[in-house]
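Good morning C.,

I know you're traveling, so I'll keep this short. The sequence:
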Amino acid sequence: MSRRGFLGVAAAAVGGVMLAPGIQLIEVARAAASGTPSAGASATVRWGMLIDTTKCASGCTDCVTACNTENGLDPKPSPTSAQWIRKVEIKEIKTGRAASVPVMCQHCAEPPCVDVCPTGASFKRADGIVLVDRHSCIGCRYCMMACPYKARSFVHEALDAQTPDVPRGKGCVESCTLCVHRLDQGAKTTACAEACTKAGHGAIVFGDLNDPGSEIARRVREIQTTQLRADLKLDPGVRYHGI
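The tokens, ready to paste straight into the viewer:
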């Protein structure tokens, strides 16, 4: 949409808010979303993760610590602190087999958080990464309610000593970005995957799902993988083995 077209829609929203606020707000969101920058993202790429729960140790928090450090999150999160990745302990009722599962934003191909966002702040890049524009986020938290993975957090308090590459803001919703700042600077992996590899676990593989020659694509072909809540048909970019 052109700038003039967007301003026209915005003006209509202001003028008609008493008549049809919901419809006008949706139209403004669509106009705003159409102009969202993708920072050079390519549609030929689909960034994703493969998490091998058979290699993920219960009690290990290396990935969580790395994420907190990389993105300037609270190293000792409270119940109201933002957390972009968390460890979930699951147990099979019939067999008793237990597994430790890292859960973060699943970067869905059909993200419900984007569908419900009234301002276009939640958006999906061409390379499959789902992000939140903190300048457009109004803190309504509709996306938090829509996310079936409980992967988004709300920033309740003012922030200081932020990481320059990861701007955050009070009153905004945020979640895992797949370390998009790293990728846009030419890096090939995320902080959590890097930490997991350095620790010798090898439970997290990051890469381009669309590249048949990549490690993640090869592993997905060779082993059985699943997506969390595959029944919702959201096509997450995060795949799991062993659950």
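Safe travels,
E.
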